[in-house]
Structure formats: structure tokens, C-alpha cells
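stage 2 :: seqdesign
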């Protein structure tokens, strides 16, 4: 398993990233979602609470040039499920659940982002909690080798989540022009010595992220026994 903090230190620009895992004692679910950015438009964002989830918001509305791909709800809750994505497909999944569709079926109508030449992947996830345990799914929708005519859809399921383990998924493999899309399985990471306090976990993640490019971070810890949540938000611009 990978040390997530060492991995983050090695990534100057991972794009957007999400994580789902189980705490070391096996009693908590640990989730997080972060933003990094290089343009003024991307960096001009903060996370704010929105019901049981969060949404992005422009820190300075006068600097917004294109809100279409930067303003959305990354986290929403549907019953015993928490949806985490890097775009407005959060709403697509939520609406799909309302009509009885599965996570994968809901995303079948979506593709990668139309931000040529990068064609940023859509990364999405869902965690379901039942009977004091958890399972989760992750999705990556990308353009093959940056070719918008060739779509690749990858789906990952974990029906037997184990203590001390989690999976991390990000949008980019590294830097470059165009930015190379992430490929392959979500990275298996250890949650050993993380603890279960969202503020401590958030501080460790935030400290490991690139100082110039980090924008916002959301961490949620869910008690698997009663599904109570504790959250922490860190915004660079606040």
C-alpha cells in the first residue's frame, strides 16, 4: 500500500482528488475531496457547507470567467449513500438514484469534461453504509491518450472494505501540456496512524499538498455504527 502523504508530496498538480477508506480500528469511514488549481479561475474557489454535503463557490465573484466547470456540488448524501465527484455529475448520480438507477447506470449518460485540449476525466465515487459496514464504488471516464473520439470508462467496486485501507483517485497523472489523464485502478493507500479526527486528518493532507496549487479540501469521518458525521473544510482563500 502507498503512503498517501508521500504520494501527495510528489504530485505538484494532481488536479482534483477523492478518497474513500476505512479507519485503522475499522469503525469509521474516511472520505475526502480536494481541489488544486493553476489558473485564476480555478484558484478562485472555496468549499461551503450545503445541507448534508458541500458545494464550490467563487471567493471573488468578479474574477469568475467561466463558472461551468468550477461551480458544482462535489458531495451530496442520498439516504445511506454519500456521493463524491469532481463535477456536476454528482447531481446526475443523485437524480439517477431518485429514479432507481445504479451508480454505474446513472453515469452512463456522462463523459469527460469538454475542456480541450486536456479533456479532464470525470472521477466519481459512492460509499454505502449498512449494518455497521461499508462498501464503495469509483468511476473514471476519460479520453484515451487525449483523443476526444476515444472514450474509456473504468469502474471499480470494493464490496469488502478492510480496516487500514482506502483508495485514492485523481484526475491527472502529472504535469504537461495537455495534462495527462489518470489511468488505471484507484491507488491503494494505508490509513494507518491517521486516527479518526477529521481536523487532524485534514491538516496532514493539507500539509502534504503542493503549497502553490492547493485550493480547497473537505474531509468527512463517518461512524459506521450510527452514521454520524464529523467534517473539516480548509480553504486557502479563507
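stage 2 :: out
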Amino acid at each position: 500500500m502507498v503512503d498517501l502523504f508521500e504520494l501527495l508530496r510528489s504530485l505538484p498538480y494532481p488536479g482534483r482528488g477523492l478518497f474513500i477508506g476505512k479507519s485503522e480500528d475499522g469503525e469509521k469511514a474516511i472520505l475526502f475531496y480536494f481541489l488544486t488549481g493553476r489558473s485564476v479561475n480555478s484558484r478562485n474557489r472555496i468549499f461551503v457547507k450545503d445541507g448534508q454535503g458541500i458545494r464550490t463557490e467563487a471567493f471573488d465573484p468578479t474574477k469568475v470567467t467561466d463558472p461551468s466547470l468550477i461551480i458544482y456540488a462535489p458531495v451530496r448524501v442520498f439516504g445511506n449513500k454519500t456521493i463524491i465527484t469532481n463535477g456536476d455529475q454528482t447531481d446526475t448520480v443523485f437524480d439517477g438514484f431518485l429514479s432507481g438507477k445504479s451508480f454505474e447506470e446513472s453515469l452512463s449518460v456522462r463523459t469527460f469534461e469538454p475542456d480541450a485540449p486536456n479533456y479532464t476525466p470525470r472521477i466519481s465515487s459512492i460509499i454505502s453504509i449498512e449494518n455497521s459496514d461499508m462498501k464503495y464504488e469509483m468511476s473514471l471516464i476519460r479520453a484515451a491518450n487525449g483523443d476526444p473520439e476515444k472514450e474509456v470508462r473504468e469502474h471499480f467496486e470494493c464490496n469488502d472494505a478492510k480496516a487500514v485501507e482506502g483508495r485514492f483517485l485523481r484526475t491527472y497523472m502529472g504535469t504537461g501540456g495537455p495534462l495527462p489523464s489518470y489511468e488505471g485502478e484507484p491507488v491503494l493507500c494505508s490509513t494507518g496512524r491517521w486516527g479518526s479526527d477529521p481536523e487532524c486528518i485534514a491538516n496532514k493532507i493539507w500539509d502534504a499538498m503542493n503549497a502553490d496549487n492547493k485550493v480547497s479540501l473537505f474531509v468527512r469521518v463517518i461512524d459506521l455504527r450510527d452514521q454520524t458525521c464529523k467534517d473539516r473544510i480548509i480553504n486557502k482563500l479563507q
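stage 3 :: structure notes
- The chain has one domain: 4-235.
- The mean pLDDT is 97.
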